[in-house]
Amino acid sequence: MSVIEIKVPSPGESISEVQIANWVVKSGDFVQNGQVIAEIDSDKATLEMTAEASGEITILAEAGDTVAVGATAATIDTSKQGNAPAPVAAPKVEAASVAAPAPAPAAAPSPGPAASYAAGHAAPAAAKMMAENNVSAAQVSGTGPGGRILKSDVAAAISAGFDTSAVPARTGERTERREKMTMLRKKVAERLVSVKNNTAMLTTFNEVNMKPSMDLRAKYKELFKEKHGVGLGFMSLFTKAVCEALQQFPAVNARIDGTDIVYNSFCDVGIAVSTPKGLMVPIVRNAEMLSLADIEKGIGGLAKKARDGKITVDDMQGGTFTITNGGVFGSMLSTPIINPPQSAILGMHNIVERPIAENGQVVIRPIMYIALSYDHRIIDGRESVGFLVKVKEMLENPERMLFGGKTAEEVLLGL
Q: The CATH number of the domain where 9 resides is what?
């Protein structure tokens, strides 16, 4: 007998234990070398665990169990290959004649788990779409390997519509459902409580007339996409505006380390992303040096990795400032919580047409409320308000982003 131990991989240097999120195979199944057999959650990322050999698997840790990194989660007996579907030799056909079709063979044993281990199991991107649209796995037919549900399968099922006649009627029955918190959710909870208890957090607000930025985007979006291969979104404009403001108010880009204040000359901007596993904040490095196109590409790539469960610990470590956009969910106003050890976070909200006074006249403009939550131990009111005003100026005069925070006229006049 040759038994291979499948050990829990490490998601990062600082992580000592993980949680088995779910197994996509069961004990006794035949698995192929390199096949995904489980998903594991840490407090920072989700990883796939793969088989390191072909053979019969025995699971040693149940879904939901917390296990140490390096511990044996399963074993594979490579001497047992009986469940693998045997290759079928093609019948030998004489060149001079065409053989009649052979009789149908007797019913073969059911296909081994190698062909069905993933049946009904959704890929991360598909799981996200299913959760957003309240679709269950039973309503979707998977076309991926082994019947795995892909994002395209969910989209096809939604577009085709569902038979609602089978939906059970509401009975008024009072039930409860209990689930274990994932390690990521537990870590988020601990960090949020820590921030509230260990910082002097305040929030200041302002409003932005988004018409100039919206006009710029509408004017150049087609040319921008044709030139750079990505769309021009508001997040890149906000990131660029934030970087300009951080250069003028370095305390907002700093952090407290013991009795020291650490100031950063660079802007590593975290972009909060909602995923099926919870909130994640991947980092756009040196955002102050990037063009709008590079920022859009960076944000898009990181967001996709986060939603597909491919994000790594390195992608989320070391940010100096965070932007979160509750507006995509319809939020009008909120007080975002600081992402430690950072000292501030900017909250974006939805854009709503509102009446405002402009040149002595009441006009309708697309307005967004923005909020800056900050640690008052390191950031004073003057700096927090000045920072928001600077962001507002950048977005209401987007040409300033092209000239280091100045208008074209100010650059021309040497002001």
A: 2.40.50.100
Residues 219-273 have pLDDT tens digits of: 998 999 999 999 999 999 999 999 999 999 999 999 999 999 999 999 999 998 8
CATH number at residue 406: 3.30.559.10
How does the average pLDDT of the chain come out, rounded? Answer: 82
Q: How many CB atoms lie within 10 A of CB 166?
A: 8
What is 53-104 written as a DSSP string? SSEEEEE-S-TT-EEETT-EEEEEETT--TTSPPPPPPPP--TTS-PPPPPP
Pairing of strands 283-284, 269-271: antiparallel
Same domain membership, residue 220 and residue 133: no
Q: Are 299 and 385 contained in the same domain?
A: yes
Q: Just list the catalytic residues.
A: 376, 380
For residue 400, is pLDDT > 80? no
62 & 205 share domain: no
Find the domain containing 287 and state its range: 184-413
Total domains in the fold of the chain:
3
Structure tokens at 143: 């076309």
The number of helices, as runs of H, and strands, as runs of E, in the chain is: 10, 19
- Can you read off the two tokens belonging to residue 242? 């934030």
CATH code at position 127: 4.10.320.10
Length of the chain: 415
Bridge partners for 202 per DSSP: 374
Is 207 in the same domain as 309?
yes
Q: How far apart are CA 407 and CA 415, in angstroms?
A: 10
| pLDDT value of residue 163 | 58
When pLDDT is cut at 50, 70 and 90, the band that residue 112 belongs to is very low
pLDDT for position 105? 46
pLDDT above 50 for 93:
no
Note the pLDDT tens digit of each residue in 128-170: 677 777 777 778 888 876 677 887 788 788 777 665 454 556 6
Is 392 inside a domain boundary? yes
DSSP line for 208-257: EE-HHHHHHHHHHHHHHHHHHSS---HHHHHHHHHHHHHHH-GGGG-EEE
